[in-house]
Design a protein that fits this description.
Shape: globular
Bound molecules: zinc ion
Largest sheet: 4 strands, antiparallel
Distance between the termini: 75 Å
Strand content: 15-25%
Order of helices and strands: HEEEEEEEEHHHEEEEEEHHHHHHHH
């Protein structure tokens, strides 16, 4: 095998070029032109897709495997992102050369088919949890050594939600006016879910969580404020995981990714904090089927937790944004506006703070559009057009995001002009 591969590489080198990529470096990003096919000579590459504002890893490609093969289908843009997990050497083909080679080399053909089948399998089975790789450039989900800057970034919003103020009971836990929401998850929500056991990173208890079968989601529309709407299902009801033992509550995306010092703080302080606010016998849980009131509480619990561990400002922005959408669904307009105003404040702090440079260009683009639309919603259309225009004119902006920004920019500018004239 090693021999046949060596001669194959020799042959390949005639039709290809080499590229070395350092660990953590991006190979291609969303919206990049899909004009190359890659064979990994040595190394490890992660393939990521964005779903519902979150990025997840759907495949890991090793030495001797191929990726980027959609270029052979003459697809225009990349709909995924490839990132080197280790120092990697790539052999790069133009699609037409690859087609020629595949005809001459049955081995390659088999490689391609295997690689494609593997990818399809991974995409259909969202249950794969790849082991964490610490050198991953996706360090934004892992929060490394940012203690001081984190504090700076959230300082501005602190006075409003000061942890040091005496807690006066449950009324401080929810936004004032938070009501009773009797809605329960629809029966066919189960089709989109499966149960999984995970170990709580705080207290090590084995807990059951519901995970979403991403392959079954059908995106209906992406609203102007970037809210994705799915057919017959709302994944946001299942985004927050709870440990019923120690009360640890966090977004699925963060659940296994907080730092040791943060986990320690949660272990020693969080349960007490919650029981001080909600009563000594308070016990968080999800029913079967899940109740909307429990979903709301889960988001509020995680907000308390993220504030306790001084999580990055955009993470708190995300939680408030989801809350504003949930309120929107039950026509609680004022609460929705209040929650989205909090999201605006957190995203603003993040965007103009020092941590903004720690996320990928693609995520940064998306967050900027989100921030602009929140400005627009809260009657600051000029701030919105400024941000959108910057994004449209920045050569680094990804093509897909440029398009989204431009559409929204034109619409808001038109409205501003109409207002001026009328
Ligand atoms: Zn726990």
């Amino acid at each position: 095998m090693a021999n046949s591969q060596a001669s194959l590489y020799k042959l390949l080198s005639k039709h290809s070029s080499n590229q070395q990529v350092a660990a953590g470096e991006e190979i291609f990003n969303y919206g990049d032109a899909a004009d190359k096919v890659y064979l990994i000579h040595r190394g490890l590459v992660g393939i990521f897709i964005e779903e519902d504002g979150e990025e997840k890893e759907v495949d890991r490609v090793k030495s001797g495997q191929i990726f980027g093969e959609v270029a052979l289908l003459e697809q225009e843009d990349r709909s995924c992102r490839a990132l080197a997990h280790k120092d990697t050497v790539l052999i790069i083909f133009a699609p037409e050369d690859m087609r020629k080679l595949v005809q001459e080399q049955p081995f390659l053909n088999k490689q391609l088919v295997t690689s494609l089948c593997q990818r399809i399998k991974h995409l259909q089975n969202s249950a794969i949890d790849f082991p964490e790789i610490k050198i991953d450039a996706e360090a934004e989900e892992i929060d490394v050594e940012k203690d001081s800057t984190e504090e700076d970034a959230i300082e501005e919003v602190k006075p409003e939600q000061d942890d040091k103020e005496p807690v006066e009971g449950a009324t401080d836990f929810y936004l004032p006016g938070h009501g009773k929401y009797p809605q329960v998850a629809e029966a066919d929500f189960d089709n989109y879910l499966y149960t999984k056991e995970v170990q709580c990173p705080v207290c090590t208890a084995e807990i059951e969580v519901k995970k979403v079968r991403n392959s079954r989601l059908r995106l209906q529309e992406i609203r102007e404020d970037l809210r994705p709407v799915y057919k017959n299902f709302e994944p946001d009801w299942y985004k927050i995981w709870i440990c019923t033992e120690c009360f640890y509550t966090a977004r699925k995306a963060d659940f296994l990714n907080f730092e040791a010092r943060q986990l320690k703080k949660i272990k020693t302080e969080f349960k007490d904090k919650v029981q001080t606010m909600l009563g000594a016998d308070y016990q968080p849980s999800y029913s079967e089927p899940r109740k909307l009131s429990e979903v709301f509480t889960a988001y509020y619990l995680s907000i308390q937790l993220y504030r306790l561990i001084e999580a990055r400002a955009d993470k708190l922005g995300y939680l408030w944004l989801r809350l504003s959408w949930l309120y929107e669904d039950v026509e609680a307009e004022e609460l929705s506006a209040e929650a989205s105003f909090k999201a605006l404040k957190y995203f603003k702090n993040f965007h103009f703070g020092p941590d903004a440079s720690s996320i990928s260009t693609s995520q940064e683009n998306k967050l900027t559009i989100l921030l602009a639309m929140l400005y627009y919603k809260h009657d600051e259309p000029k701030e919105a057009v400024t941000l959108l225009s910057k994004l449209v004119h920045n050569p680094k902006t990804k093509r897909a995001h440029k398009k989204m920004a431009k559409e929204r920019f034109l619409k808001i500018r038109k409205e501003l002009r109409a207002k001026k004239e009328g």
